[in-house]
Amino acid sequence: MNRKVKEVITGDIFKISPEWVFDNKTGDTVLISGYKHPEQVSPGDNSAKDRLTELISGKEVELRDMVMITRGRLLCDVYFKGKNIADYFPEYK
Q1: Could you tell me the fold of the domain covering 2-92?
Q2: DSSP labels, 62-79
Q3: Distance CA 45, CA 72 (A)
Q4: Are 29 and 72 in contact (CB under 8 A)?
Q5: Tens digits of per-residue pLDDT, 47-63?
Q6: How many other β-carbons are positioned within 10 Å of the β-carbon of residue 86?
């Protein structure tokens, strides 16, 4: 099932609608598996967040291969237009 991206929080975390269901729990926050964006290099450096926002904000994504819930966020692979989001950010793998 596809979900719409409501808000991008960081370069690898975002909120969706409708909520996901995993292991008898639900939520709206997703942590992308497959890469880790760098922490801000300098104050105000939101380049990873800005890039992810430009790519998926307000668009449909598909959640696959759900791994676990960590701090209320579903860790899983995320696909946009049939391509794994991690593949859009090879420098963060």
Answers
A1: OB fold (Dihydrolipoamide Acetyltransferase, E2P) (2.40.50)
A2: EEEEEEEEETTEEEEEEE
A3: 25
A4: yes
A5: 888 999 999 999 999 99
A6: 18
